[in-house]
Structures are given as C-alpha cells and as structure tokens.
Amino acid sequence: EKxxxxxxxxxxxxxxxxxxxxxxxxxxKKAKDxxxxxxxxxxxxxxQKQFRIGFSPDSWDSLLNHLxxxxxxxxxxxxxxxxxxxxxxxxxxxxxxxxxxxxxxxVNGNPVAFGARAMGDDHPKYLNSPETxxxxxxxxxxGLFQGKEEIRKKKFAILVExxxxxxxxxxxxxxNVAASLGTAFTPEQSKLLGRFTKKIx
Length: 201
What we know:
Layout: H1 5-24, H2 29-40, H3 45-50, E1 54-56, H4 62-69, H5 74-79, E2 83-86, E3 91-94, E4 99-105, E5 111-118, E6 126-128, H6 144-154, E7 158-160, H7 163-171, E8 177-179, H8 187-194
Parallel strand pairs: 7-8
Antiparallel strand pairs: 1-4, 2-3, 4-5, 5-6
C-alpha cells in the first residue's frame, strides 16, 4: 500500500533537514555568517544539534536538485512546502533561501514543518512552511519533543511564542518549555500539551 502522502512529505522533510544541517557546517561565507549569528545569540553547538538547526543556502534550486537526486517525485516535492511554485512562469524553486532553519518536530520527533529566520534585513524576518499533508498549523508545539520529559518531571510547562524564545530558555537550563509558533494557542495544542501536564505558565 502506498505510504500516506503525509509520511512521504515527512521523508522529504527529513532529507531537507539533513541537507540544511550539513550546509550550516559548510565553508561558504554565508554559512560562516549563519554560525556567527547563532553564536551571537548564544546558541551553543549542543543546542544546535538538539534542535537540528540548519542553514538554507542562498540558491534558487540547491534543495530542489538535492531532492531530485534522491529520487523524490516532482509532484510530491511540490506538495511538500519545501518549494514554491510560480504557475505563470512555470517555475519551481526553493522556498527557503539564505535562512537559518528551525525544524518543527512533532511529538515523536518527525520533522513536519520548518521555520526560517532571515539573517540580514530580508523580509519577511520569519518565513514558515505552508500547510501541507504533514502539517496543519495550530496542531503542533515547537520544542515539545525535546521538552516533554522535563515537562512531565516538573509537572508544568512554560509556554512561549517563538523558536528563539524557547531556545533562549533551554540555553539557560529551563527545559520544560513549548512554543505555540506565533499562532493563537489552539484547542489542539492544549490537548497535546495536556498529555504531559495540565499546568501551563
């Protein structure tokens, strides 16, 4: 039976995530700038690994070509949210370019979406994955995969808004944290967090 499309999208996300992690360690000036940016925010290598932070090269098609080399189906790539499609020019190109990549993992650690932060003055400052077969906005909490055991242990969760808010706390050893990803807190997120604690700060 053909694997659910959402599982196939997660597989592509996994390829993208590993590609971007490797890019962050690359030799290019942009990759060095990305590492300097993270260092400037006080984000240690250990935290970068824990949150699988990466860097999308400033190129129109490096990820697209990488996915194709891995044998990914073009239709699926278009559904994955990893590329943008310009109908009128009949062009497909990388959605995330020259940005620091924050994977959104589901509660089991599967990459379902990405948040991307511009390093310079690029707009928008944050660019997120669109909704895809693997990702419905408001159904996931960033950092919950990494923080769930600590939330259980401490018997409460600290809810913050965005990626860097959460990472800043984890840097200072406050690990019972989850982030709502800039949306209003939804009933689905509440249910999800309720599996680990009923007390939210």
